[in-house]
Design brief:
Layout: H1 7-24, H2 28-31, H3 57-62, H4 64-86, H5 91-102, E1 134-135, E2 139-147, E3 151-158, E4 163-170, H6 174-193, E5 204-210, E6 213-219, H7 225-231, H8 239-258, E7 261-262, E8 271-273, E9 277-282, E10 290-294, E11 299-301, E12 308-309, H9 326-329, H10 337-352, H11 362-373, H12 378-381, E13 392-393, E14 397-398, H13 407-414, H14 419-424, H15 429-442, H16 453-456, H17 469-472, E15 482-483
Antiparallel strand pairs: 1-2, 2-3, 3-4, 4-6, 5-6, 7-12, 8-11, 9-10, 9-15, 13-14
Length: 526
């Protein structure tokens, strides 16, 4: 590394070069180096330091042309690198070119953030990292957000846009790389049809390949609805928020279905709050116990790794167990309506604080459905595949409790309540009536008879004017909104198939509340 020159040494060298240039007849601007590197942009709270040697106005004037050309060349090279990165160029290419650029002796390049030396992945193919390191020169690792079978999600600082982001880093395993590329295609299709993000789907900012890991950069969001429930000790959301989340979720699902796309993995873990800010309110009027209430109800639907186009291959089993539709369990084949069933399960969970079907076995799951909704119809039983026929007696009725695997399983089913009892135990009047009716339509056994998301948005339940909980309670606590620093993981992803989306998008419900505008935050450098 070249020893740093003092201002006086640099000025003497400059004057010697100027004399040599006059003697040779060469224009001074060609042979001279710039006196000083261009000042780096100040961080927040700082001002630009004064330029050294500014009193030598005549000498500085001769180097303006060289400084201008140097700065322009550097700027053009950086813009080219950014363009390659955002278009999915290999991170090694971007990083290598950046190192080559910084080693050319171009003064004024400022601090160059480089990735750490290459280290092997762990035994499962996960990227190994340390906090404070960089993923390419642009993303500084701040904190882990979550981990799944697909890989890891990290909170990062984007040095280019000076904002926080979430980087999803896929395991360096070929099947997960292939699935990630399919997810990227799905996300591009979604964003092409909704560039403004009106339908509450997560926005992918860019993607790149980093040392064999596909990396997807997303907008930074808050906690998932499940994580918010967990941190709230599973105290349920207010009816006003359940209505709000249900409206947004149905709008997002209706939009995806208009693109001939089935999400297949709807659950509270895959629904993020746009912000983790909350305020505390009493659990009930006059209570000394409190619970958290989100200050911004806007949500984002995430994890399109299992999303499948209508005309592409459909895997046999989809959805997480608790939110799996009966047609999937019975091997009847599935389509858009499996998403609708999942929405019904999610709404009940948000209202009660507990998962609706807490089971891990097919027959027990079907028995719980019958307690909740009534007997499964003969028309559904007759369509079950040969593997699922063992769950029924003579193809007429569910083989329960005779087919149960344990007394514990029987007790779990006996603890289930009917759907109307769950709702009327918490609500009353027209509110309970409309919500019960909507849930019965969302949780219809026959897939073809299940309500569509677009029709569900027109249901009378969403026309009710419900007062926000923090306004309904007396004397809410005077605590200012705060941000919970914990994060939830983006959930598992699986392979799906890419199809062609239609060009037209059916009109959906009116726009919902806009997200709260947040002030940009400064970079957190170690």
């Amino acid at each position: 590394m070249r020893a740093r020159e003092l201002p006086g040494d640099h000025l003497r060298s400059h004057r010697a070069n100027a004399l040599a240039a006059r003697a040779s007849g060469t224009p001074a601007a060609v042979v001279m180096e710039p006196l000083l590197p261009p000042a780096a942009p100040p961080t927040e709270g700082e001002t630009n330091p004064p330029r050294q040697g500014a009193g030598e106005g005549e000498e500085l004037g001769r180097t303006d042309a060289a400084v201008t050309r140097s700065q322009k060349r550097k700027r053009d090279e950086e813009e080219a690198l950014v363009e390659r990165k955002t278009s999915g160029a290999s991170a090694e290419t971007v990083e290598g070119t950046n190192r080559a650029t910084s080693s050319k002796g171009t003064s004024g390049s400022g601090k160059v953030h480089q990735s750490p030396p290459h280290r092997p992945d762990d035994k499962d193919g996960h990227l190994q990292y340390e906090l404070g390191e960089s993923i390419t020169p642009y993303y500084k690792i701040l904190a882990p957000l979550g981990e799944g079978t697909f890989g890891r999600v990290l909170e990062c600082w984007d040095r280019k846009s000076r904002s926080y982001c979430a980087v999803k880093i896929i395991r360096n395993v070929q099947k997960y790389r292939d699935a990630a590329m399919i997810e990227i295609d799905v996300l591009k299709t979604v964003q092409k049809s909704d560039p403004e993000g009106k339908y509450n789907c997560i926005k992918m900012q860019s993607w790149f390949d980093y040392r064999g890991h596909i990396c997807m950069v997303f907008e930074k969001c808050g906690l998932s609805l499940f994580e918010f429930l967990r941190k709230n000790h599973y105290k349920p959301f207010s009816l006003n928020l359940v209505q709000n989340y249900g409206r947004q979720l149905l709008r997002a699902v209706a939009f995806l279905h208009s693109l001939k796309l089935v999400h297949t993995d709807l659950k509270p873990e895959n629904i993020l709050l746009l912000s983790s800010a909350y305020q505390r309110v009493p659990v009930s009027s006059g209570s000394k116990f409190t619970k958290r209430v989100p200050t911004d109800p806007t949500i984002r639907l995430i994890d399109f790794g299992s999303a499948t186009f209508e005309n592409q291959y459909h895997s046999t089993v989809v959805s997480t167990r608790h939110y799996r539709a009966p047609e999937v369990i019975l091997g009847m084949g599935w389509s858009y309506s499996c998403d609708v069933w999942s929405v019904g399960c999610i709404l009940v969970e948000l209202l009660t604080g507990d998962a609706l079907f807490q089971t891990h076995e097919n027959l027990e799951h079907l028995a719980m459905m019958e307690v909740l909704l009534g007997p499964i119809g003969r028309n559904v039983i007759s369509r079950a595949d040969r593997h699922a026929q063992k769950y029924f007696r003579n193809g007429k009725e569910l083989n329960w409790p005779e087919g149960s695997q344990s007394r514990e399983s029987e007790r779990a089913v006996m603890k289930m309540d009917r759907l109307q009892d769950i709702i009327y135990g918490r609500l009353d009047g027209a509110t309970a009536k409309h919500l019960t009716n909507l849930l019965h339509k969302l949780l219809e056994f026959t897939p073809e008879d299940r309500i569509t998301p677009a029709d569900a948005l027109k249901h009378p339940f969403f026309e009710l004017e419900l007062e926000p909980e923090e306004n309904a309670l007396f004397n809410p606590l005077p605590t200012s909104p705060r941000v919970d620093q914990s994060r939830s993981a983006n959930s598992n992803q699986g392979a799906s198939k890419q199809g062609t989306a239609p060009q037209s998008i059916p009109a959906l419900a009116p726009a919902i509340a806009q997200p709260v505008q947040q002030q940009p935050e400064p970079e957190r450098e170690a």
